[in-house]
Amino acid sequence: MMQLSTPEYFEKAKNYIEVEEKTADHFYGLTITKDPIIRNILEVLVVEKAEGLLKNNKSGFTKMMKERDIPNLIKIFALLKKANIVKAFFKEFQNFIQSDGEQILNKISS
After folding, report:
1. CB 12 within 8 A of CB 65
2. 74 pLDDT exceeds 50?
3. For the ranges 64-68, 95-99, 101-105, which has the lowest average pLDDT?
4. Is 56 within a domain?
5. CB atoms within 10 A of CB 105
6. What per-residue confidence (pLDDT) applies to 101?
7. Number of domains making up the chain
8. Angle at Cα 9 formed by Cα 64 and Cα 6, nearest 5°?
9. Is 34 contained in some domain?
10. CA 38 to CA 87: how far, in whole Å?
11. Residue 1 domain-assigned?
């Protein structure tokens, strides 16, 4: 299986969820039926994978923060928000800020 970077994975997950939402709208229409279906898809595609993708230094998330890749960060945040798990995003963002801040302070004190 091909390894996807964090932005690639979340983009594919977002696209898949949008297709499933349209399909659910078409076939079910009623939110009583549609909502559990979308929640299950979010659970499988986002909740189960998010923390690992965000923590993995090789996945591209840290690079996105370093390069201030705002459009992709917004997309990832929106999908995590939809899945009600923004805490993982903020935790990794906090870790990045602390690490980046330490590096800046070390350069200044050298």
Report:
1. no
2. yes
3. 101-105
4. yes
5. 10
6. 78
7. 1
8. 25
9. yes
10. 20
11. no
